[in-house]
């Protein structure tokens, strides 16, 4: 989903939600604290976002 979602697919604030019918949604957790700035379900792909924070990869 990362490539299809643009920035959201690489962001620590994104949660992937799977519906019972097999659809996949991406929910932005920043919308909980700042609903005026961020929508709960961003339109994808998101190419620009002030709230973006990259997921850091942890090496095993
Ligand atoms: S903060 Fe921006 S880039 Fe990150 S999940 Fe929310 S809308 Fe997507």
Task: Give your account of this protein's structure.
With 60 residues, the chain is of the alpha+beta class. The protein has two helices and two strands, in the order αββα. The chain has helices spanning 2-5, 30-33, and strands at residues 14-18, 24-28. It has a two-stranded antiparallel sheet with strand order 1-2. Strand 1 (14-18) and strand 2 form a beta hairpin. The radius of gyration is 12 Å and the shape is globular. The model has no long low-confidence stretch (mean pLDDT 91). Iron/sulfur cluster binds next to loops.
**Secondary-structure element series:** HEEH
Biggest sheet features: 2 strands, antiparallel
Number of strands: 2
What Rg is obtained from the alpha carbons, in whole angstroms?
Answer: 12 Å
**Secondary-structure content class:** alpha+beta
Counting DSSP H or I runs of 4 or more residues, the number of helices is 2
The small-molecule ligands in this entry are: iron/sulfur cluster
The side-by-side strand order for the widest beta sheet comes to: 1-2
| Head-to-tail CA distance between termini | 23 Å
The residue-averaged pLDDT reads: 91
Strand content: 15-25%
Number of domains: 1
Would you identify the regions where 5 or more consecutive residues have pLDDT less than 50?
A: none
- Based on Cα principal axes, name the global outline: globular
Helix % is 10-25%
């Amino acid at each position: 989903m990362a490539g299809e979602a643009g920035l959201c697919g690489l962001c620590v604030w994104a949660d992937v939600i799977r519906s019972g019918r097999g659809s996949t949604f991406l929910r932005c957790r920043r919308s909980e604290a700042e609903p005026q700035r961020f929508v709960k379900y961003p339109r994808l792909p998101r190419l620009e976002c002030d709230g973006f924070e990259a997921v850091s990869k942890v090496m095993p």
